[in-house]
Amino acid sequence: KNSRMSTTVSPIKPLYLLCLLSVVNLMNFMDRGIIPGASKEFDGFISGTLETDSPDVFLGLLQSAFIVGLIIGSVTFSHMIHHYGRFFLVGIGMSVWTVAVFMSGISKTVDSYPFLVFARMLSGFGEASLQCTVPPWIQQYAAPAQKGTWLSIFYTAIPVGTAFGYAYSSFVAESIGWNWAFFIEAIIMFPFVVFFFFISPYYPCIHHDDDKSVEMKKKPSVLNEFKIVLSSPVFFLVIACNAAQTATLIGISTFGSSFLIGLGYFDKESQASTVFGVLISIAGMIATPTGGLLLDRYIKKQSTRQGSDDMEARTEFCVSEDTSIDFNNNSITQLNPLSKSNHLIDNDHNSITNNHFISPTNPYKTEIASLVNILIVFNIIGAVLLISVYSIYNDVLFFLMISVGCAALFLTFPSINMTLMLSVPVENRSFAIAVNTIF
Asked: What is the helix (H) or strand (E) element at residue 323, kind and residue range?
């Protein structure tokens, strides 16, 4: 427990920690690509264990089980951030994930499909610890003019990890068996788990109820957190936008190869899947970091125009008004760990209203307006291009338009997540990411 006047110095600079977190995120999404990347091998396993002629249905259930675990884990870990340090929670979650992927490999040995379903659900639960706790940490610790860039680095792991997961799974499954794709992951992840527990004391929970000299602050219930984040109109509209965008990208990824075959561009499904997968992956790898850079430059430009030339004065860079962050020395000085999170939060913890986030006095008004502008422009561009491909019959133009259209959607990833976090109180940002995962 920290004292009333305490300084916590991490031995790892935030930028280096971001790189490690991005590698772990890449591994998480690489894991997601194992089953679709070796679908034939998994079809054979399912047909053998369940004695069915329709393994595709049960293959889809594996992905559904993962999503169920991810949703449950998102709500659990995002709420526990009020009780435990974020990297302690990541360590717990990645421990669960490591055990889960090892169990996924064991399922082939025990020849049990239900065991594999449970293991995939458990892996989704463990992964949620990273997805919900890291973005708010980035928002807090990234340098003032690099928040979008840092978010884009973390989220670029999505297209890179997914693409690598397909290739990795296919290669390992054909050479030594799909179960080893899971075993290798578990072995690689173990040192990261140890590291997260090592670093966790340097990033403690911001609540310290044992300090009797400071006014007690009631921790919110899960229901209260739902009410807080869903009371923000900006948040609600952005998660609706993200849900539509995600459905579009998943639909394109699922039926993309069928489009190419139906239009007569390819005769074999393997060729169509490979080409389409490469196009979408490259679009994501280029557009996601580009979106982060564009976000930082646009917000800086708009803030300067509004007269906000001191970006480091933004209170979002601190966990409370009484907490200061030294970016040069990589330290945090917490003068009063039990003070209110920042001036965006009322004296009554449970009476936060969305008026703070839409009123002219909101210190994030400029940032939110800039973010919404980016979302509107590039979602319109992406929608127009992707709708237009249905009237294109030239192969080169078809590939170009669908690649650029998807890139426009990928480009908004950092903006979506930053908008979600800025539209709710600081202490509810992890839960905001969790709610976005649910929708």
From this structure: strand 323-326
Is residue 420 pLDDT above 60, yes or no? yes
User: What integer pLDDT is reported at residue 2 of this predicted model?
Assistant: 39
Query: Bigger pLDDT: 2 or 137?
Result: 137
C-alpha span between 434 and 436 (Å, rounded): 5
- The amino acid occupying position 382 is G
SS3 content of the chain, % helix, strand, coil (to 5): 75, 5, 25
∠ CA 142-143-148, rounded to 5°: 65
b/e sequence 262-291, b meaning 16+ C-beta within 10 Å: eeebbeeeeebbebbbebbbebbbbbbbbb
Tell me the C-alpha distance between 427 and 315, whole Å.
13
Residues 26, 32: Cα–Cα separation, whole Å: 10
In what helix (H) or strand (E) does residue 74 lie, and over which residues does it extend? Answer: helix 55-80
* C-alpha separations of 293 from 288, 299, 403 in Å: 9, 10, 20
Q: How many CA atoms lie within 13 A of 283 on its CB side?
A: 24
Q: Give the burial class of 134: count Cβ atoms within 10 A of its Cβ; 0-12 exposed, 13-18 middle, 19 or more buried.
A: buried
Edge to edge, the sheet with strand 331-334 lists: 6-9, 331-334, 323-326
Position 150, amino acid: W
CB 318 within 8 A of CB 341: no
Give the three-state DSSP class for 326: strand
- pLDDT-derived band at 143 (thresholds 50, 70, 90) equals confident
Phi/psi at 192 (nearest 5 deg)?
Answer: -65, -40
The tokens for 352 are 């936060």
Give the mean pLDDT of 159-187: 91
DSSP secondary-structure letter at 327? Answer: T
Looking at residue 356, what is its pLDDT?
Answer: 40
Spatial CA neighbour of 123 closest among 94, 157, 87, 84:
94
- β-sheet bridge partners, residue 9: 331
80 near 72, Cβ under 8 Å?
no
Token pair 């669960």 is found at 96
Torsion angle, alpha carbons of 305, 307, 310, 312, to 10:
-70
What does pTM read for this prediction? 0.81
Neighbours of 396 (CB within 10 A): 8
Q: Give kind and range of the element (H or E) at residue 333.
A: strand 331-334
Structure tokens given for 301: 């430009």
Residue of 147, 423, 160 lying closest to 291 (CA atoms): 147
Separation CA 239–CA 221 (nearest Å): 22
Q: What pLDDT sits at residue 359?
A: 39
